[in-house]
C-alpha cells in the first residue's frame, strides 16, 4: 500500500485546518453589496434617529410639557439655544466643553455618511458634497433670506400671542470666543439637521416605498417636534420650513443649499441676538 501523505498537524496530532495546508480560504462577500431589506432599513433609520434628532424630539416634547405646566406663561419663560457650560470665571473650561460638544454632536452625520458608503451609495445621491459650491452658496443665501424673514415674523407674532417662549440664542457670557463658537454652532445645526432630516430620511423612506409627500411630512413633523421646546408658534414655523426644504431638496436634488441656508439663518440669529437683544424694543428678551 502506498504511503499516504498527511497534512500539517498541531501539537496534539490533530490535522490543521485547510487554510494551514495552503488551500484558498472561502471568499466572504463584502458587507453592503446587496440592497438592505425593508426591515433592516427601518431598523437603520430608527437607530440613526435614536442617536440624534429623534432623541431631541422626545427631549423637546418633555421640555414643552414642563413649560405648559409651569406657573409662568410661555412668553415669560426663556429657552437658551447656546448656553454656557461652566462658571463665568472659567472661560477655558467652558470653551473646552463647547468644542467637545460640537465635535461629538457631528457623530450622527458621520454615521449616516458611513452607512451610505456601506451600501455603495455614498453621500452624492443626497448632494452632500462640494461639486457645486457657487450654486449651493447662492441658492442657500436666497433661501435663507426667504425662510429667515418668515421665521422671524412667526416668532414675533407667536410670542406676542403667548404661544412661544422667549428665545435667547446665546448665553455665553460675552467671552472673547463667543462669536466663533456661535458660528460653529450654527454650521453644526445646518449640517446635522439637513443631512439627517432631509437628505438621509428622504432617501431611506423613499427606498422603503414611501411617496415623496409622505416622506416630506414625516421629516417636517420630526423637525417641528424637536423645536417644540420653543413653543407652539415655532413648532408650526418649523413644520412649514421643513416642507419648504423638502420641496427644494426634491427640486434641486442637493442638500448642500439647505445646509448653507440653515447655517446662515442661525448665524444671523445667534450673532444678531448678541447685539440686538436689549438694544431694540421690538425683540423679546431685552
TrEMBL record:
Q: Which GO biological process categories is it annotated with?
A: CAAX-box protein maturation; proteolysis
For whether the record's keyword set contains Hydrolase, the answer is yes
> Which GO molecular function annotation, any one, does this entry have?
endopeptidase activity
Q: Where is the CAAX prenyl protease 2/Lysostaphin resistance protein A-like domain?
A: 176-267
Transmembrane helix as a keyword of this entry, yes or no, is yes
Q: What UniProt keywords are attached to this protein's entry?
A: Hydrolase, Membrane, Protease, Transmembrane, Transmembrane helix
Region (Disordered), start-end ranges: 1-29
TM stretches of this protein: 45-65, 99-116, 137-157, 228-248, 255-277
**Which branch of life, at top level?**
Bacteria
* Record's protein name: Membrane protease YdiL, CAAX protease family
Amino acid at each position: 500500500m502506498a504511503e499516504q501523505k498527511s497534512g500539517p498537524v498541531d501539537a496534539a496530532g490533530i490535522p490543521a485546518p485547510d487554510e494551514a495546508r495552503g488551500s484558498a480560504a472561502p471568499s466572504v462577500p463584502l458587507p453592503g453589496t446587496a440592497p438592505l431589506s425593508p426591515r433592516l432599513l427601518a431598523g437603520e433609520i430608527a437607530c440613526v434617529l435614536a442617536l440624534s434628532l429623534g432623541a431631541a424630539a422626545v427631549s423637546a416634547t418633555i421640555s414643552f410639557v414642563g413649560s405648559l405646566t409651569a406657573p409662568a406663561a410661555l412668553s415669560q419663560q426663556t429657552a437658551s439655544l447656546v448656553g454656557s457650560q461652566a462658571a463665568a470665571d472659567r472661560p477655558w473650561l467652558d470653551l473646552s466643553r463647547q468644542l467637545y460638544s460640537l465635535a461629538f454632536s457631528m457623530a450622527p452625520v458621520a454615521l449616516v455618511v458611513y452607512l451610505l458608503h456601506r451600501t455603495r451609495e455614498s453621500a452624492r445621491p443626497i448632494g452632500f458634497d462640494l461639486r457645486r459650491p457657487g450654486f449651493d452658496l447662492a441658492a442657500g443665501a436666497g433661501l435663507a433670506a426667504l425662510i429667515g424673514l418668515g421665521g422671524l415674523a412667526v416668532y414675533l407674532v407667536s410670542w406676542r400671542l403667548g404661544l412661544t417662549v422667549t428665545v435667547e440664542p446665546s448665553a455665553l457670557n460675552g467671552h472673547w470666543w463667543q462669536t466663533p463658537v456661535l458660528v460653529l454652532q450654527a454650521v453644526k445645526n445646518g449640517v446635522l439637521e439637513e443631512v439627517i432630516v432631509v437628505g438621509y430620511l428622504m432617501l431611506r423612506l423613499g427606498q422603503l416605498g414611501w411617496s415623496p409627500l409622505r416622506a416630506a411630512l414625516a421629516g417636517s413633523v420630526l423637525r417641528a417636534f424637536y423645536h417644540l421646546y420653543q413653543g407652539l408658534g415655532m413648532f408650526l414655523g418649523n413644520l412649514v420650513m421643513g416642507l419648504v426644504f423638502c420641496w427644494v431638496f426634491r427640486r434641486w436634488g442637493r442638500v448642500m443649499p439647505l445646509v448653507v441656508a440653515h447655517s446662515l439663518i442661525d448665524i444671523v440669529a445667534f450673532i444678531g441676538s448678541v447685539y440686538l437683544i436689549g438694544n431694540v424694543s421690538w425683540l423679546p428678551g431685552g
